[in-house]
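Put briefly, the fold is written as integer tokens. The lines below illustrate.
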Amino acid sequence: MLTKRVLAAITGLLIMGSIAGCAAVGAPTATALQASTATEGRTITVVGVGTASGAPDQATAQLGIETQSTTPEQATRANNDQMTKLIEALKAAGIAEKDIQTTYYSVYTEQRYKPETGEATGEIIYHASASVSVTIRDISQVGAVLDKAVAAGANNISGVSFSVADTTGLEATARERAVADARARAADLARLFGVQVGEVTAISEVVNSGPVPVYDRATGLGGGGTPIQPGQLSISTQLQVTFNLK
């Protein structure tokens, strides 16, 4: 009876030892766990910049007329008549009606003063002012259109700006260059740290405001009238790219 009990106890101890041994072999140590996680999820994030330039193919001009008189009725009537002549002259120059848009209209008063004493004379002058935004789609005719506008009575030209009607091509070129720049930056940084660049994990594009003039590449366009320098426009794109590291 005693012998059977001793044998049972010894057998139980052997079984428990075998289970403990198997558990010790199957479970990784704390050091192994740290080593395995240290090589996972390593990334590098860079910002690539790409720029593309092109010649503008259209222009926008702000053309206006200001008139004055001793009564508001006379000032506005004169302004309306001259603005009608200006718009007719623009259409005769080849500007489509859809490319002529009223952008400003104002009537205001001016109190006259004696230059000697600075005292008010009691005389009031009424000013009427109006302007239109004109899109010139034939860029070679910008100078000629401005000359015809002045001849038709325009006495307030606030500015001429140039643009590209369709920026799709320039944007695509700038984006390709931004991708190449991002890859080059990532590869250079990885080399400095002794690692290699892997697959792309995230891409985001930074939206810019629009084309920027490049003045040092100007090409004159006079068209026989006012000399115009359209220059070139530059579009930039920025891409934030995240790569895995090998």
User: Anything to note?
Assistant: The radius of gyration is 38 Å. Residues 2-26 form the longest helix (25 residues).
